[in-house]
Design brief:
single chain; 177 residues; alpha/beta; Rossmann fold; 5-stranded parallel sheet; 8 helices; globular; ATPase AAA-type core domain-containing protein; Cytidylate_Kinase-2
Amino acid sequence: MRKVNVIGTSGTGKTTFAIALAERLGYPVIHMDALFWKAGWTESADEEFFAKLEQVLSCDRWVLDGNYSRSQSVKWKDVDTIIWLDFSFTRTFMQALKRAIGRIWSREELWPGTGNRESLRLLFSRHSIILWTLRMYPKNKKRYANIMTDPQYEHIKFVRLKSPSECRIFIDSVRAG
């Protein structure tokens, strides 16, 4: 396991898991959201985003945190392992809600240098992470299940973790690279 992509619907804990796995392996962790989002909640154009992604993925070992399906050709070019955090809808939704409320309360900047923070206005807008989770959960579940059995990805090892306890067991079983 040298090049790992952690995927899952918003709220599953991809970032927390990716950080723990990267620390265990001694690899750098790369957060796709930090590469994608610019100040003022401005999205990067695909050309710019893909160039950033290619640059950070050029090293020998990494743990990549994030989905962005349109970037699959870039991020999965050399990936050897994909870890899908496939928690229940209830757990995923509640974690997304708890995280959003916590970030609203703390005024935490999401990606350094962007000034982007969650807010009540954002929470109740069409860009809401809660609405995103509600809409994407069933789509991601179906899409990721199909990807795991797609012959074009048979060279990739897929790991499907369905609970926080499975995540802890997996992290504990990993040996530093």
